[in-house]
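Input (structure):
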């Protein structure tokens, strides 16, 4: 009986997280109330607070799950890639595919910024930084032209990838996520490559 109750509670918690992730990603944090989430899940507001002490802590849990999922996808993609630029391309592709797959967890990390929720900003920033450290390491491994700012390069790439979800569904005749990610990385490479690097390489 105790085990069955624990399974039910875990299932309820997972549903709360999934629906909260979708609503935070779609409506934003401020526009989504705990009551909205409870109504969508089919539980009371008290049931939400039984699992999460505050709306902010619920958001942190969504971030944690989102970071875990997107990190796992990126790590798997990079593990199967070749050189540094190929690894960056694989990471960018996995990142974008997660965002465009309509997964609320991944999109929630992009939609809700740490600065939007001051009471849990430190935890959110830690989770974002922990994920983005992968891209820092990948860009550090690149052989770049003198004077190229690696931080700006990372921010340009992630910014372009994250903004794609705004226009992707509205665009017609656009390539898939993998092709878009390859184009982004190829464009960055053409401007940041070391002098004399082969023009034909991808």
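Output (sequence):
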């Amino acid at each position: 009986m105790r085990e069955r109750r624990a399974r039910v509670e875990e299932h309820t918690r997972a549903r709360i997280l999934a629906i909260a992730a979708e609503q935070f990603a779609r409506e934003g944090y401020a526009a989504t109330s705990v009551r909205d989430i409870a109504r969508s899940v089919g539980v009371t507001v008290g049931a939400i607070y039984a699992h999460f002490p505050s709306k902010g802590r619920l958001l942190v849990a969504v971030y944690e799950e989102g970071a875990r999922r997107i990190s796992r996808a990126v790590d798997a993609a990079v593990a199967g890639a070749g050189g540094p630029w190929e690894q960056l391309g694989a990471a960018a592709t996995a990142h974008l595919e997660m965002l465009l797959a309509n997964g609320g967890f991944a999109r929630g990390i992009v939609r809700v910024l740490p600065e939007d929720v001051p009471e849990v900003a430190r935890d959110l920033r830690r989770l974002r930084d922990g994920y983005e450290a992968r891209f820092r390491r990948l860009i550090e491994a690149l052989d770049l032209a003198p004077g190229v700012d690696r931080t700006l390069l990372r921010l340009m790439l992630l910014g372009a990838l994250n903004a794609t979800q705004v226009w992707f569904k509205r665009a017609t005749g656009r390539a898939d996520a993998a092709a878009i990610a390859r184009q982004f990385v190829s464009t960055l490479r053409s401007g940041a490559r070391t002098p004399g690097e082969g023009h034909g390489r991808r």
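Notes: Residues 56-192 form a domain with the Tetracycline Repressor; domain 2 fold (CATH 1.10.357.10). The mean pLDDT is 89.
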